[in-house]
Amino acid sequence: MRLLALHVQDFRNLGQVSLAPSPHATIAVGQNGQGKTNLLEALYFLSTLKPLRAGRLSELVRWGSTGARVTGRFLLKGAEREISVEVSGGVRQAFVDGKKAASLEDYFGGVSVVAFTPDDLEVVKGGPDARRGFLDRAVFNRFPAFLRESREYGRALKNRNRLLREGPVEPAYLEAYDETLAKAGARVYVRRRSLMAELSPRAQATFASIGRTPEPAAYGYHPAHLGDVDFAVADEAALAVALREALAARYRRDSERRFTSVGPHVDDVTVTLGGRSARAYASQGQQRALVLGWKIAEIENLETAMGFLPLLMLDDVSSELDPERNAYLMNYLSASGAQVFLTTTDASLVRGAAAQDTLWLGVRAGAVTSPAPAEPPPVDEPQPADEPA
Ligand SMILES: Nc1ncnc2c1ncn2[C@@H]1O[C@H](COP(=O)(O)OP(=O)(O)OP(=O)(O)O)[C@@H](O)[C@H]1O
Ligand SMILES: [Mg+2]
């Protein structure tokens, strides 16, 4: 997969941007507050239909404009296709080759992206909801149908919670809701479990190779309050039964508190270092390496599963890493051959990911120029002395 062209219009502070990315690294350089993250977010939104940062869709539209639009031309399995997304009036519309997309699967059609942002640290430091969001983005990348499946679960949950909020509910009346919720929930469990089975050994190995920490990392997912079912081996039907039983067992509690207290929406991902909670004990740098281990594992896993690399986006990541880990990441990026988009305030931090074909962009007050103004030649030309005599 390759992004051949990107057009952005009235997206956050970006007016009109058209660019033809490098097949390898495209690097946006600019000072704080100029629109670098916005440029990545436009591409992320195009590729996932989700904003990179939490918030309302209407925040994506440039102030004073009625709508935002992002279009990308991709090369996918030898064929070119153009997808676009428009936001206006708080509503999003997706198009494939100029026509309204028939379905989400049709829209994505194999486009996938892995983003690295400084917020990713929340995965270790933050609460369970941050970790669930992180996990679900990875699940969605791996299994695009999960976008629909997780929405089905979300709808079922909302309906059941609405009923609980309205007042005392007869258990018999709740049963139909439990049935729907349990089925949708079991699907979510299975997807998350499949992803974790692929990802956690890889992430553990990557973390070990990033180095400097002798203790092994472990990444795990175990649903909460699910009774005696053996989560590692139970099939989807058995998980649905277990969830339904757990819902029934918590009936009194849920009707008192007026919300559903068991299901995929309350689960957590555990990240440990040497068997101890990384959140409680790992240093800042170790936490960053744990996130990096996960992300690189995600990329490699997608490559194995799909046969090609996802697009990579790194928003101002180098400034957060120590020189050694930054060098590890830059080497990884250039050796992977992936198409990558980086932003930075300091070009010298990302030189390691650059090559002759790097597209350097300057971002200033929402305008994107190429090459970046006043940017010295980024890659050292081979010196005559380096050439064989
Ligand atoms: N909907 C919008 N319309 C117009 N401008 C917006 C909108 N949303 C955000 N902005 C502006 O975009 C700018 C921030 O852009 P962005 O986050 O891309 O900066 P950045 O270059 O990544 O900076 P930093 O280096 O600090 O991360 C801010 O000045 C903000 O006011
Ligand atoms: Mg930024």
Give descriptors for this structure.
binds adenosine-5'-triphosphate; 15 strands; six-stranded mixed sheet; six-stranded antiparallel sheet; 22% strand; alpha/beta; Rossmann fold; binds magnesium ion
Please, could you describe this protein's structure?
The protein has a domain at 1-112 and 310-378: Rossmann fold (3-Layer(aba) Sandwich). It has 389 residues and is of the alpha/beta class. A six-stranded antiparallel sheet has the order 2-1-4-5-6-7. A six-stranded mixed sheet has the order 8-12-13-3-14-15, sandwiched between helices. A three-stranded antiparallel sheet has the order 9-10-11. The radius of gyration is 23 Å and the shape is globular. It has helices at 36-48, 104-108, 122-125, 128-142, 146-166, 171-210, 236-249, 251-257, 278-281, 284-306, 323-336, and strands at residues 2-11, 14-19, 25-29, 67-76, 79-88, 91-96, 99-100, 113-116, 217-221, 269-273, 276-277, 311-315, 340-344, 359-364, 367-369. The longest helix is centred in the middle third of the chain and has 40 residues, at 171-210. The model is unreliable at 380-389 (pLDDT under 50). It has eleven helices and 15 strands. The site of magnesium ion has 4 residues, from α1.
